[in-house]
Amino acid sequence: MSDPTSKRRVFSGIQPSGNLHLGNYLGAIRRWVDEQGEKENFICVVDLHAVTVYQDPDELRDQTRRLMAFLLAAGIDPRRTTLFVQSHVRAHAEGAWLLNCVTPIGWLERMTQYKAKAAKQESVLTGLMTYPVLQAADILLYSAHEVPVGEDQKQHIELARDIAQRYNHLYGPTLVVPEPMIPKVGARIMGLDDPTAKMSKSSASVRGHAVALTDSDDEIRRAIKRAVTDSGREIVFDDSPEKAGVNNLLTIYQVLTSKSQDEVEADFSTARGYGDLKKTVAEVVIDAVAPIRSRYEELMEDRGELDRLMAIGAERARSIAEPKVREMKEKMGFIVPAEL
Ligand code: AMP
Ligand code: TRP
What we know:
Layout: E1 9-14, H1 22-34, E2 40-45, H2 47-50, H3 57-73, E3 81-85, H4 91-100, H5 105-109, H6 112-119, H7 126-140, E4 146-148, H8 154-171, E5 179-181, H9 217-225, H10 244-257, H11 261-267, H12 274-301, H13 303-332
Parallel strand pairs: 1-2, 2-3, 4-5
The chain binds adenosine monophosphate and tryptophan.
C-alpha cells in the first residue's frame, strides 16, 4: 500500500484500434506529454482491450506498432515515461481475473460505454462487458494516484475506485484508490460533422468527422473548412446547442494556444465570419500536428528501435505489476510459489 516514490503516480491507456484523432491528442496524449517528469508516468497501449471487438490479427499488430510510434512522435519520452504494450505484462490479465471475482455484474451493466457499444452489435462478447474490470486492473496494479483521461472515461475510473474499495474491504488495505483527472478544456472534442456527438475513433473514417493525426495539411484544412457551424456570425464561446460547432472550433484553438477564453475571443474580434475562424483554427492544428506526423513517419521506418523501446517499457512495467499481483493473490489465500 505504501508509495515507494515521492512522485505522484499516473497511469493511462489508449487502444490500438481505429484512427487516432485530434480529440485523443487534445483530451489525453498532450497532457501525458506535458506532465512527464513532474509525475511518475505509465502509458499503456491496451491491446487486450482492443480485442473486446474482433480485430484482424495483422491489422492489430500493425496498429499496435503505429500507436507506439505515434506516442513517441507526440513526445512521450521513454526515459521519463514507462511506455509499454499491455499484453507484454501478463499481470494485467491475471489481475483482471482476480478483480472480476470482486465485481458485481450489476456494476458493469450500468456502464454507459458498454450499453452504447453493445446496442450496436448482434452478439456481444463477454470481454466487452468485463472491459472496465481489465481497465481497473491496469490502473490498480501500478498503485496509480491519478488517471488522466477524457470525459468519456470518467465512469470507468469511478468503477475502478469502487472495485479497489471493495477489494480492500474484503481482503485488507492493498490497492490505492485512484482519481480521474479530466482536463478543464478539451475533455470532449466534438465531431466536425456533428458537433453534438464526440469525436470518436469508431467514426474517424467517416468523411468530415474527425481530423486524423496522420492527415496531410490539406486534408486538415479541408476537414475544418467543412466543419458544421450555424447561420450566425458571432465568434464567442457559447454552450447553447446551436453554437456547438463554433464552440468546438474555439475549444480546439484554446487548447492548442493555451489561451484564456477572453484572449481567444479577442483574437477573433476582427474576424469576418466563420471562414476566417476556420482558416486560423486549421493553421494552429497544422502547426501542432505536422511535426508529429513527420517524426511518426521516421519512427515507422525503424522497426528495430520500436521493438527495443517496447521491451524496455515492458520490463519496467513488469517490475511494478508482478509484485502487486502476487500481493493480491497472497491476500486472497492463494498458495504463491516463489518462482511465480
Ligand atoms: P479512445 O479513443 O477511446 O482509445 O481514447 C483514448 C483517450 O482519448 C482517452 O483518454 C479518451 O478519454 C480520450 N478521448 C477520446 N475521444 C475524445 C474526444 N472526442 N475528446 C477528448 N478526449 C477524447
Ligand atoms: N478504456 C480506455 C479508452 O477507451 C483505455 C484504457 C484502458 C485506459 N486501460 C486504461 C485509460 C487505464 C486509463 C487507464 O480510452
